[in-house]
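Dear colleague,

Thank you for sharing your sequence with our group. We've completed the structure prediction you requested, and as agreed, I am returning the results in plain text so they can be pasted directly into your records. Please verify that the sequence below matches your submission; if there's any discrepancy, let me know and we will rerun it promptly.
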Amino acid sequence: MPPWIEIILRTLSAIIFLFIVTKILGKRQLSELSLFEYITGITIGNLAASLSIDLDGRWYQGVASLAVWTLVAMGIEYITLKSKRLRNVLDGKSTILIKNGDILEENLGKERITVDELMEQLRYKNIFSLSDVDTAILEQNGTLNVLLKKENQPLTPKMLGMTVEKELFPEVVISDGYIMEDTLTSIGLSKSWLQSELKKRRLQEKDIFLAQVTSSGSLYIDLYQDKIHPVHVDAGEKNLLYTLLNKCEADLALMQLSTKDPKEKEIYKQSAKQLQREIKNLKPYLK
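Please find the predicted structure tokens below.
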């Protein structure tokens, strides 16, 4: 057999084997990797590459080595699921870098992170002032998660004592011109409903690149011809929303004045300030 044909066959076999190994080891190999998973991925990739081009070696020896690495990786993953102690050794532990607004210099030293690197990671989170941070935790995979101080957290309906309806998960119902009937059934809709919606817009399935039922139950459509149909919000609705937000701010200020409890006064005061900031940010879009 000519060498170039053997290389092609070995390479195709290695690709198939790597695909099988990746499926066996699971999706964690494709996402954030632990140290051992990182080493395993590099080693298996190198073994597969050597198996493809090393014509002097016997192919079954390379396959045996790949199989051993795969079995060891599977065994260690199983053990780490059962043993917290071994999981801490292999994957490591999360490290608190900022606690109650104070930087823990000792933990920074343990993780070999400089203040400049810490500030860089905070800027990635759109945080430019340390005074805004309550807690920062360095996870096992190197990601920095940050908890802002209460007064710097985004305003939520719960803070205003408002109840909101449960939001549905948006689902794609047409992809590449084909209706996804299983998805329609799972969200309680039918193919006839979808076709009637398309008929209203004088469209056919084949015209549509992607259609999605949004969380509000409306239908978003993107055509193959890239005819974009943006959702237009009526100016009157914008003004109404702006007025309602200002009314909420005024109500919070009124509640602050009417209550005698100092704690409640402070809560209303902080809520009014947060809402005022949000209104300021939204004003260019609502006026």
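Summary note from our side: DSSP finds ten helices and eight strands in the chain.

Kind regards,
the structure core
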